[in-house]
Write the structure tokens for this entry.
Amino acid sequence: MPALNWSDIDTVLLDMDGTLLDLHYDNHFWLEHLPQRYAELHGVSRAMAELELQPLFEKNAGSLNWYCLDFWSAELNLPIRELKLETADLIALRPDADVFLAAVRDAGKRVVLITNAHRDSLSVKLERVALAPYFERLISSHDYGFPKEDAQFWNALQADINFDPARSLFIDDTLAILRSARAFGVAHLLAVRQPDSRKGPRDTQEFAALDDYRTLLEGLG
């Protein structure tokens, strides 16, 4: 990964799930816990639960609905926020993410969280991990009505916080979102090589990949 030229960066935009937080919590919830609880609460087999859930997941992937707890609660007739609390002990920071956040904040950079997570999901995580003090703003794409994959999200973000994309760093674990940011003109982009600590590293394709937050601190001061 090439060293960052921090003198060219004023604003640091950060994703949450898979970037600052270990994606294991979300993967476990949606792929293991939710199908099991769906089966129990609807009186079907686990295999049938997965058969019913999979086409719904595929249909909504990448849309705002995909990230919306209200949508899934209504669609599945389940209390999704309450179910997420059942596995909240799995919510965890990625190694040294807090060290990075503190250093960037102390260096005087603007630090803004931009997440596709629903506000209810965000609140569940902030109750477990003290992220809020590091950020100037905590922005959910639900505030704007568009996911980060959509160009309209970036227009809304620009109107909201008035940042210079040419002098901004954005870190995210989703390649489609990084491509959306690049199309908007965000100049400094990093993917995350291993967003889920229980799964292996991923191919981040055309994007430089973050392995260790401490490596980003060189030249920051």
In short: The two ends are 20 Å apart (CA to CA).
